[in-house]
Amino acid sequence: MFGLVDCNNFYVSCERVFNPSLQRQPVVVLSNNDGCIIARSNEAKALGLKMGDPLFKVRDALERHSVRVFSSNYVLYGDMSRRVMTLLAQLAPDISQYSIDECFLDLHGVPALPDFGRRIVRTVGQGTGIPVTVGIAPTKTLAKVAAHFGKHYRAYKGVCIIDNERKRQQALRLLDVADVWGIGRRSRDFLHVQGVHTALQFSELSEDWVRRRLSVTGLHKWKELRGISCIDIDQPAEKGSICTSRSFPGQGVSCQGQLEEAVANFTAACSHKLRAQHSLCGSLTVYAHTSRFRTDVAPNIINRTLQFVTPTNDLRELVSAAMGVIRRDFRSGAQYKKAGVIVWNLCDDHVVQGNLFDPLDRQRSEHLSRVVDVINHQCGHDAVHTAVQGNFSAINGGAVSEGWRMRREYISQHYTTDLRQIISVNADR
Fold first, then answer.
1. Which pTM value belongs to this model?
2. For residues 143 and 187, what is the distance between their CA atoms, to the nearest angstrom?
3. N or C terminus: which one in the chain shows less Cβ crowding within 10 Å?
4. Can you tell me whether residue 223 is helix, strand or coil?
5. Measuring CA to CA, how many Å separate 297 from each of 4, 251, 302, 335?
6. pLDDT in tens, 38-87
7. Burial label, 37 (beta-carbon count in 10 A; 0-12, 13-18, 19+)
8. Are 130 and 81 in contact (CB under 8 A)?
9. Which residues pair with 253 in a beta bridge?
10. What count of other Cβ atoms lies within 10 Å of the Cβ of residue 389?
């Protein structure tokens, strides 16, 4: 049996943990630059607010219904995710994190599954304040189906188990094929045209029909819905590339120093992700471009790819390379609307062919990177960073450079990662 632990309305739940006044209130979380809604509380869903609704279109509705609005606080959400996953690793024999708010559990040999599921809900709720739903079934796709119903029906009390044929058929009969994990929009539309509207109808198709008309992924989903486990995510493949990019608010960035600062921070984020997954990159792409919709300023595109003789995840090496691109290709007077960094051509950090003439001491560099990561984990995000990233850290007494940073008018505090922003309690009473 497999279990799926899914955090309920995760971004909203993270905000509620440290702000109890938000309980039972309609809450939404916005995307980068406060563009559109990406998370909603159940109360906000009941008001008819949709995922992807642009803020400017629903602002009146938000004010009319007194909806609490928050900018994305990814530092907080990432740390709360780490806490949830740490607890799950202590409870389950084998876990595999699927996303920031979902985790699969291998429950083979675990007795008393209903009690185990309730224990997970209780322990994670008490330990982090995050409500979770547990779906348990013979396959991972059916576990996702179980979690879907566990979220939507209170009678399950957060734990839904599909452990026999009657429950499987009943669940699939009630589930739209569009809600099956991994069924994309094109497959959904195609199946609807063929008269297949429920997950049960999809599972009753012949294997030959599915094999000929859908992708391998569709065939795997078909098998999983029939109770045949064939999706291996216990050891998911590492990403083939990592990208960090952002659109700039307002008219964009026209100052070279601000563009350098932005690209340096994007590169630092990629470097951190590389080290987190124990990877090195052999190639680095830096790009920036002006808005294609503006006709009053000359267009300009920066797009350059660099190859490293020795694959690397070293912060200094990557930032230095990215800065070389910006300083070479930046054009004065251009107003860059978006920029990004992609690291690709990845390999494991333990299978690297050395370079006899390598100018960098890789061993010392690796040791320095580990120390910097430990300091940043203990003292706050980017407590130690390269100078070109900007003197934005309050630890260093610096001022925030706002020219390129995301518009986040409704950002909450970094309660769990910044000592200056922990909750203060009034004990006068």
1. 0.69
2. 21
3. C
4. helix
5. 51, 11, 16, 8
6. 999 999 999 999 999 999 999 999 999 999 999 988 888 888 988 999 89
7. buried
8. no
9. 336
10. 21
